[in-house]
Amino acid sequence: MARVKVPILYLALALLLSFPCLAWAWSGMVFGVSDGDTIKVMRAHKEVKVRLYGIDCPERSQAFSKKAKQFSSGMVFGKIVEVSQDGSNPAELAKGWLPRLSAFLPC
To answer: What is the mean pLDDT of the chain?
Structure first.
């Protein structure tokens, strides 16, 4: 009887530990690029602004911002990306800013 309970316990534990990951990870298609490191992804027929993970591009008022946007558009526009919440800066959260979402482009 004890042998049956152990695998069920491990299965239940694995499901509980993976639940928070499932709640935040989702996929969507890129339909717009705001600037070189921020894209617009469609989720449940709504637009969600998402930052590209590990990318830092010039802002709109800085030099080469148009080139950065063109490059990013060529890389991600029309593609499916995986979106999840990254470790946001505690100072940003203290100001009331929303947690930052990051997109990962599957290879």
So the answer is: 77
Task: Summarize pLDDT for 63-74 with one digit per residue, the tens.
Answer: 999 999 999 999
Name all domains of the chain by residue range, CATH numbers in brackets: 24-104 (2.40.50.90)
Cβ atoms within 10 Å, residue 4: 8
Asked if 2 and 62 touch (Cβ cutoff 8 Å), the reply is no
Q: Could you please report the per-residue DSSP string of 40-77?
A: EEEETTEEEEEEETT-----TTSTTHHHHHHHHHHHHT
First to last CA, the chain: 46
User: 76 exposed, middle or buried (CB, 10 Å; 0-12, 13-18, 19+)?
Assistant: buried
Helix, strand counts (H, E) of the chain: 3, 5
pTM above 0.70, yes or no: no
